[in-house]
């Protein structure tokens, strides 16, 4: 059976439902290794950064981005308040009719990771045996390609001006080339003589390989220039090169030839051991999945010629049960449906095949008792506690913190000044590149450079209206680029809309924007008038105010809860707390915390959350 790649099989399906989040979950080395590892004391138990990081990695790998939440606060609450939430259950009501013990997406992800770890164990001897052959077959994929650290000097030519003729420019460029010596660098010559936009940086293009996309348009270098560049040794300047745009000099600051890594280098770097280990694990996985599908009668039902693309379509069969797209959505999340609806032709049965393989993997894990392993069982328990915590926090905040319209209106009154939009007016200049140019990248870059110099001239005091009449290409040019005072929401004229975009970040009357690329235009704007309009009425902002006020109130609730736990001595931030953005408890003033929103008698009926006012009743 030709199954998917091991990594794809183990992670692709999970990626349909989950996204990695949270700074705590990063695997980067700490920037301050000497930072104390003890981060917080929770109800008398000292917690290190390693424990918090492991928790964050587990949650972030198994939770959608919008459900992961604040992992630091969740860790604290889960360790301090878990007993308070025993009346809230981790239920499987929405998937209880589906077979198997691993119905929750986050639990399935933990199971996949555990299987992956198992498959990668005990392979050292086989890795050593396969290493020489793998190197011979794959070394060409790991070559460091030939590359040059390139610089460029350019002079334009034109038949319309004798001083810019090819002959005249070639003479000037020959003189420039002759000036390069030990005292005069190529970069200095570029800054003085080049007519390209890169002149200010000494013509530095950076490291380039053959046919490598470069520049804002991400296109390869002109082949004439590239061929000449790669014939140069380090420190050499090319002969004068001619293209349709003008004359050029290329300079190789450094030239590195293709490097072939040795077997030892690829082994000690870990490239070969890791790659071979995953290949071997893939082979084991192929056999496992093939055997399960054969034994349990697994097959793909959906075809490439399927007429309908609804969630009732039968996708696959396994162990005597037929799964529709709706069943799979409940197991894998809505992202799988999105992938299904965007698939065409053979992509649909291929998607079903990948899901079938993943379901076979999960069935194998069930039979092998993977979930009963202590480490896996601990992770599953942590996820259940986290789910219970999130449900409880939602209900507590909803029951105690639900926003009324009067509260939203009060929030609006206190913050309405933030929603006042400015009317603005000023002057605008639009520059248009040569749209018929063969090299549009260069044409746009030239227009951008003209715009940059023009903005400097305007800031230096030149009359912008006069420049607009002379240079602007928009409909306001004849009036000196004047844009009357107006409400941005009501602007329909394209030039006025461009003016609004260019002046959006300007703060003061008289400010001039940097050149702003808008499609095939470069826009420069000057702010000459601005006045704030009255804020929109509450009715227009009502929904936004309800959401914003709720977010603010939830934030205040979370802060009050954390302050309460700190004041009761249940949470004490230690010396290593700075690593997670917290101030050690002894280094800050005491917080006047409100009474804890969670009762100490958490297991009594008084601690049961009531109905969620925002989401409707929840089953406990």
Task: Compile the SSE list and pairings.
Layout: H1 6-17, E1 38-42, E2 45-48, H2 49-62, H3 65-68, H4 71-80, H5 105-119, H6 124-138, E3 147-156, H7 166-178, H8 186-193, E4 204-209, H9 223-229, E5 241-242, E6 246-256, H10 263-268, H11 271-295, E7 299-300, E8 314-318, E9 321-324, H12 325-332, H13 334-341, H14 347-368, H15 374-401, H16 405-415, E10 422-431, H17 440-459, H18 464-471, E11 482-486, H19 494-503, E12 516-518, E13 521-532, H20 538-567, E14 571-573
Antiparallel strand pairs: 1-2, 1-14, 3-4, 3-6, 5-6, 7-8, 8-9, 10-11, 10-13, 12-13
Helix pairs in contact: 1-5, 2-5, 4-15, 5-15, 6-11, 11-14, 12-13, 16-20
How would you describe this protein?
The chain is α+β, with helices and mostly antiparallel strands and 620 residues long. It has three domains: 6-122 and 276-384, no CATH class; 147-256, Chitinase A, domain 3; 421-532, Chitinase A, domain 3. Helices cover 44% and strands 13% of the residues. The strands form four sheets. It has a four-stranded antiparallel beta sheet, sandwiched between helices. Mean pLDDT is 82; it is low at 1-32 and 588-620.
């Amino acid at each position: 059976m030709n199954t998917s790649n091991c990594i794809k099989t183990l992670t692709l399906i999970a990626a349909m439902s989950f996204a990695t989040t949270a700074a705590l979950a990063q695997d980067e080395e700490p920037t301050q290794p000497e930072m104390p590892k003890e981060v917080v004391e929770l109800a008398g138990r000292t917690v290190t950064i390693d424990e918090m990081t492991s928790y964050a990695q587990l949650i972030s790998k198994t939770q959608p981005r919008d459900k992961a939440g604040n992992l630091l606060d969740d860790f604290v609450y889960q360790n301090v308040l878990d007993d308070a939430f025993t009346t809230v259950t981790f239920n499987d009501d929405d998937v209880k009719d589906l077979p198997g013990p691993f119905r929750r997406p986050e639990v399935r992800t933990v199971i996949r990771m555990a299987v992956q770890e198992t498959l990668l164990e005990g392979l050292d001897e086989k890795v050593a045996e396969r290493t020489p052959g793998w190197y011979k077959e794959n070394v060409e994929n790991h070559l460091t390609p030939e590359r040059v650290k390139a610089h460029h000097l350019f002079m334009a030519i034109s038949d319309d001006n004798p001083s810019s003729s090819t002959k005249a420019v070639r003479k000037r460029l020959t003189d420039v080339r002759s000036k390069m010596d030990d005292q005069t660098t190529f970069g200095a010559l570029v800054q003085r003589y080049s007519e390209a936009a890169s002149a200010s940086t000494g013509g530095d293009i950076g490291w380039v390989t053959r046919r490598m996309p470069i520049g804002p348009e991400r296109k390869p270098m002109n082949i004439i220039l590239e061929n000449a560049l790669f014939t140069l040794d380090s420190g050499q300047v090319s002969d004068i090169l001619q293209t349709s745009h003008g004359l050029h000099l290329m300079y190789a600051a450094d030239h590195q030839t293709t490097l072939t890594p040795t077997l030892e280098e690829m082994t000690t770097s870990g490239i070969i051991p890791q790659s071979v280990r995953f290949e071997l694990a893939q082979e084991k996985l192929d056999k496992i999945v093939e055997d399960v599908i054969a034994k349990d009668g697994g097959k793909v039902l959906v075809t490439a010629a399927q007429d309908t693309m609804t969630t009732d379509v039968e996708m696959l069969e396994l162990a005597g049960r037929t799964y529709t797209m709706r069943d799979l959505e409940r197991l894998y999340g809505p992202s799988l449906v999105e992938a299904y609806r965007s698939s065409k032709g053979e992509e649909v049965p291929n998607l079903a095949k990948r899901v079938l393989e993943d379901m076979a993997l999960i069935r194998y894990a069930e039979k092998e008792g993977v979930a009963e392993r202590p480490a896996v069982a601990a992770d599953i328990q942590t996820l259940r506690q986290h789910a219970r915590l999130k449900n409880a926090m939602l209900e507590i905040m909803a029951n105690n913190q639900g926003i009324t319209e009067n509260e939203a209106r009060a929030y609006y009154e206190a913050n309405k000044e933030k929603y006042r939009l400015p009317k603005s007016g000023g002057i605008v200049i639009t520059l248009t590149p040569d749209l018929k140019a063969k090299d549009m990248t260069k044409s746009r870059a030239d227009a951008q450079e003209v715009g940059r110099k023009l903005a400097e001239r305007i800031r230096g005091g030149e009359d912008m209206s006069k420049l607009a009449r002379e240079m602007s290409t928009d409909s306001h040019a004849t009036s000196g680029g004047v844009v009357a005072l107006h409400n941005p929401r009501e602007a329909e004229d394209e030039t006025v809309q461009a003016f609004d975009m260019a002046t959006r970040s300007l703060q003061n009357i008289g400010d001039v924007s940097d050149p702003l690329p808008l499609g095939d235009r470069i826009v420069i704007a000057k702010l000459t008038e601005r006045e704030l309009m009255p804020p929109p009425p509450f009715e227009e902002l009502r929904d936004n105010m309800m959401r914003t006020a709720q977010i603010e109130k939830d934030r205040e609730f979370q802060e009050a809860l954390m302050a309460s736990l700190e004041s009761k001595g249940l949470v004490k931030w230690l010396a290593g707390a700075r690593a997670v953005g917290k101030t050690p408890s002894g280094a800050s003033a005491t917080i006047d915390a409100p009474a804890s929103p969670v009762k100490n008698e958490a297991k009594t009926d008084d601690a049961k959350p009531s109905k969620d006012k925002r989401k409707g009743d929840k089953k406990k």
